[in-house]
Structures are given as C-alpha cells and as structure tokens.
Amino acid sequence: MSANDDLFARAQRVIPGGVDSPVRAYGSVGGTPRFLVSAEGAYVTDADGRRYVDLVASWGPALLGHAHPEVVEAVVAAARRGLSFGAPTPAEAELAEEIAARVPGVEKLRLVSTGTEATMTAIRLARGATGRDLLVKFAGHYHGHSDGLLAAAGSGLATFALPGSAGVPDAVAAQTLVVPYNDREALEAAFAAHPGRIAAVITEAAAANMGVVPPASGFTTFLADLCRRDGALLISDEVLTGFRAAAGGYAQVLREAGEQVVPDLVTFGKVIGGGMPVAAVGGRADVMDLLAPTGPVYQAGTLSGNPVAVAAGLATLRLADDAVYTRLAAASAALSEAVGSALTDAGVPHVIQRAGTLFSVFFGADVAGGVPDYATAQRQDAAAYRRFFHAMLGAGVSLPPSAYEAWFVTAAHDEAVLAEITAALPAAARAAATP
Ligand code: PMP
Questions:
Q1: Among the options 46, 183, 237, 373, which is catalytic?
Q2: For the CA atoms of 229, 233, 237, 241, what is the dihedral angle to 10 degrees?
C-alpha cells in the first residue's frame, strides 16, 4: 500500500469520504486521492514523495504559484504579530482598497472568510435592499453551498450529477428560480412570470464550475439591463474569475470586449486570500451600508478579516503586476494549444473554451460544437476525461479530478514546466481515444 492509500483509509474512518470538500475525493475519476504534503511554484508533492506539475492551484488561489516566498514571508510576519484579534486591523482597509481600485463599481467591501459567505451575504443584502424574496441563478453556476444556491449547481454537484442537496427545505428552494445560462428568452420569461418579485440575479462573471462557459457576447449587458428595468440587483460572482481571468477580473475582459457592465454587488474569494481564507462582498456604497452596524442586514464573523489571511491576500495582489498576467496569459494560451493539438492528433473530439486566462477542455463529439450551457456540458464524455486524467497523473501532471472544472495555471508555469506537461500529452490523448 502506498502512503496515499494508508492515509485515505485512515481519513475515511474519521472524515466523511475521507475529504473535507467533495471533489477532492476523486469520486468521478476513480482512484486514491493524492494526499499532499508540500507545494512550491508549479509543483505539489504527495505523501509518497512523488512530485506533480499542478494544474489545480488550490482551485484558483495560487495565482503566483505555490508558497511564493514573499507571500510566505508576509504570512510569517503577520503570524508573529498575532493570529487573530477580533478587532479591526490596519491591513483590512488596505486589502479593501486594493480590490476596490481594480474593479469599477466596487465602492465598499466587507471581508469574509469563504466564497460561500460572500454570496450568501450578497443575496441577503439584495433582499434587504429590495424587500423582495426571489433569486434567479443559472444552471451549472456554483456560488458556494448555502441553502438557496445549491439548485442545479456546478462544481461538485455537477461532478457527482446531483440536482441539488438533501437538507434544503422546499420553502427555501422555492425562492430560487433556475434559468439556463446564455438564454435570453428564459431570463425574460422568469422576469415576466414574477414582475417586481425578483430581488437579484446572481451569475458567475464567466461560468467556470461546469467547465469554462463564458457569457455570450452581449449576454451580461442584456442581463444587467433586465435587472435594472425590473428593479432587481445584479450580483456578479467573481470568486473564481476575480484577479485571475484578468487583472481586473472578468469585468475587465467584458470591458475590453466593449461591454460596460457595473453590477450592484460583486463577490470575491480565492486569489484575494492568496491561499488563505479570505473572500469579500463589495459593490454600491448605498447597498453595502445596509450591512450592520450601519444598516439592518446582519452579517458577522469571528475570523473575518483575519490578519494572517489578509496579509497573504495583500501580498498576493501587490505582487500580481502586469508581468504576472502576461505570464499567466502566455501559459494559458500555450497549454491550451498544446492540449488541443495533442487531442486532435489522437482523433479525440473536444472543444476548449476560454474566459480570459481561464480555460477548460470538454471531451466528446456531443460537445465539440461548443458548450453554451449546463445541459450541453452534461453531454461531455466524462469517461474519456477520466482516462486522460489518469494518464496525465501517471506521467506526473495533476489535473482537476473532474471534467467540470477549469484548468488552473499559475505565474510559475514557465517554459520548462509547460514542456513537462506537453511531453505527457500525446500518450494521455491516446488513452482518452481508447475506451
Ligand atoms: N463562487 C464561485 C464562482 C466559486 O467558484 C466558488 C468556489 N469554487 C464559490 C463561490 C464558493 O467559494 P468557497 O469554496 O470559498 O466557499
């Protein structure tokens, strides 16, 4: 038995499924999850001492690569000053300023610890601001695991083909309307059916939890107009895309495409904590000021704005300069091209979809024409991905253990790292082609 097998057996005795977050369990690709003991740059090392090129990047946060020395130094320095005070600290406003400066429309922010809390708070704020109850979300979008957001959600629910979650009261689920992504008519129909009753539409700025599915040209503008006309708020979830799809998040990608969409509220996570638990909800000052203690919408957290976590986020954002995004864009382009040509050479039908520097690969003839929504994403060939995943893992490249996730590069994925991945591709593509 390998150390990974031993650790997995032991973990399963005390932790449900042996993992603290479902997709880590390799449930859809099969096999024993790798128990990681360290990570540096573009690499992770497991309990058996095997080193892998990492394309998970902690599911997004590791923008600069793992354990960037200056980020680690900032964390150690903050830890020496104290782990948690339960009082305001100077660095919280600094991090809020760094985020606000990068995203138009974000006038005020509140820091929380997880993306789940950020979206949960955004929804409560939208309901408080509008006095309405209904929420619209898109099928295949994932916004964390709060009750109202688990209907037709992406990420682990997509991976395990779950329509929703047990334990969510019907009365709560009934407040969420689920609409197909990129479908203008369905969205209009939802507003027409419930005029003046929708508090908010929440959307991933670009969907990346059912594989990467960017909004169709003009769709986000259409969505924003519809919300404004009805008096509903638009919540843009940039937990995954924020400061990763581009320096200014997916909002910047949209702006560069000529779409000036300023959401009422925006949620952030992942990169803004640089690998530590920091997330945020931000947006219009008048809406944000509805939060306690200035307003009637309650939200709180013992560890919110934790000084050690904030130090990691601040260091990460300050280090994320133009050179980092240039590197990220180059790595993303080179890798997606190499994957595409290896799959084409092996005769594997596929499509690669992009949202800024984010991309993912859908396998299968049924999706090769493009994936605009969740119903199409569900027609991908998950078995081909499984074979590809294991061939890559065997060759020392760790991909997301699910066909429904983005592939994450970091600024540490340089030419040499990319060459290592590229060398593994032809055999993995042949494995994908061979049922
Ligand atoms: N929103 C989006 C778009 C996400 O990708 C995620 C996490 N993958 C979340 C919210 C939830 O964040 P967390 O896991 O930190 O609760």
A1: 237
A2: 40
Structure tokens at 165: 């979650």
How far, in Å, CA of 75 to CA of 423, rounded?
Answer: 36
pTM of the model: 0.98
Question: Ligand 1: does its nearest atom lie under 6 Å from the Cβ of 182?
Answer: no
Give the tens place of pLDDT for each residue, 79-126: 999 999 999 999 999 999 999 999 999 999 999 999 999 999 999 999
Reading the block at residue 42, the tokens are 């573009």
Q: Which atom of ligand 1 is nearest to the CA of 21?
A: 14
Residues 179-196 have pLDDT tens digits of 999 999 999 999 999 999
Q: Tell me if residue 237 is catalytic.
A: yes
Per the annotation, the verdict on 108 as an active-site residue is: no
Cα–Cα distance between 426 and 380 in angstroms, integer? 21
Catalytic annotation, pick one of 43, 46, 264, 270: 270
Say if the ipTM goes beyond 0.90: yes
Closest CA to 374 of 220, 178, 230: 178
Output the CA 144–ligand 1 centroid distance in Å.
5
Q: Above pLDDT 70, what percent of the chain?
A: 100
Delimit the domains of the chain by residue range.
3-64+321-433, 69-319
Q: In what order do the strands lie in the sheet with 176-179?
A: 108-112, 279-283, 265-268, 233-237, 198-204, 134-138, 176-179
* pLDDT average, residue stretch 365-374: 98
Cβ(129)–Cβ(283) under 8 Å?
A: no
pLDDT value of residue 432: 98
Cα(374) to ligand 1 centroid in Å equals 17
Q: Which ligand 1 atom is the nearest neighbour of the CA of 204?
A: 3
Q: Which CATH superfamily, name and number, covers 3-64+321-433? A: Aspartate Aminotransferase, domain 1 (3.90.1150.10)
Written as one letter, the residue type at 434 is T
- End-to-end, the C-alpha distance of the chain in Å comes to 27
Confidence of residue 418 (pLDDT cuts 50, 70, 90): very high
Domain 69-319 has CATH 3.40.640.10: yes
Is the minimum distance from the CB of 410 to ligand 1 under 6 angstroms? Answer: no
